[in-house]
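for the recovery benchmark. C-alpha cells below, seq after
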C-alpha cells in the first residue's frame, strides 16, 4: 500500500482519535485508541484508492512520510 501522510490527533469533542489523510480528499477515520484509529484509516485508504480507480479519478502520488501528532 502506498505511504500517504497520516495525521492522528485526539478530538475532545468526539472523544476519539482522528486519523486524517490530507493528500486524499475526505479520507479520514477514528477510533477509541491511537492504534485503532491508525488501523481504521489504513482500511479507509485502501477503499478510497479502490473507489478512485473504479471511477477513473486521478490518484495523488504519496509524499511518503508519516506524521504523528
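predicted aa per position
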Amino acid at each position: 500500500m502506498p505511504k500517504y501522510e497520516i495525521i492522528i490527533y485526539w478530538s475532545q469533542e468526539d472523544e476519539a482519535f482522528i486519523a486524517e489523510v490530507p493528500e486524499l480528499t475526505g479520507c479520514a477515520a477514528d477510533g477509541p485508541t491511537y492504534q485503532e484509529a491508525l488501523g481504521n484509516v489504513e482500511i479507509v485508504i485502501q477503499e478510497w484508492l479502490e473507489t478512485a480507480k473504479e471511477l477513473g479519478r486521478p490518484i495523488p502520488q504519496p509524499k511518503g512520510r508519516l506524521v504523528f501528532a
